[in-house]
Task: structure prediction
Amino acid sequence: MPRKRKGKKSTICSEGPVVPKLVTEAEKSAECPLCLDTIKNNVQCRMGHLICVNCRSKVAKCPICRDPYDGTKCFAFDEVAEKLDSVKILLKDLDKLLEAPHTDKVIKITESQFDRMTEFIKFLMDTLEEVQSERVRNVWDRVQLNQMRFYMNYMLFLIKDVKK
Result:
């Protein structure tokens, strides 16, 4: 079990890997509705729903709204998916560092990593704002984007709590 800093209660250490769970939940919002993999290369319908390119060849119409696909791609979503992958890798590295026997010496490194994670999450939130303002007309898509925004705000809250 990783050691905690003196006098400070770490949410991540005391309750297990909370932040990685939140990243996983946010990633679920970015899943293809057909294959349930994270959408890496996307195609969107007229309503803005996304599926992965592999699944596009299997269906003629959007599985959510039944509109035909017009072959457009949401480039902002690609950036979100890429940054989510970066955050996941960063969190795995942090977990390994916190489990190490020399945790006290690593705290300065992890604090700088938390700063980088905060920057990633803020970038993701800005990108989500752009995606939502551009093509999201469907209520369900707004709910999913709001859910991702909630998870990212919560991750920022946890990071600030750990840094105190």
In short: The helical segments are 11-15, 18-28, 53-56, 75-99, 103-135, 139-163. The first strand starts at residue 42 and ends at 45.
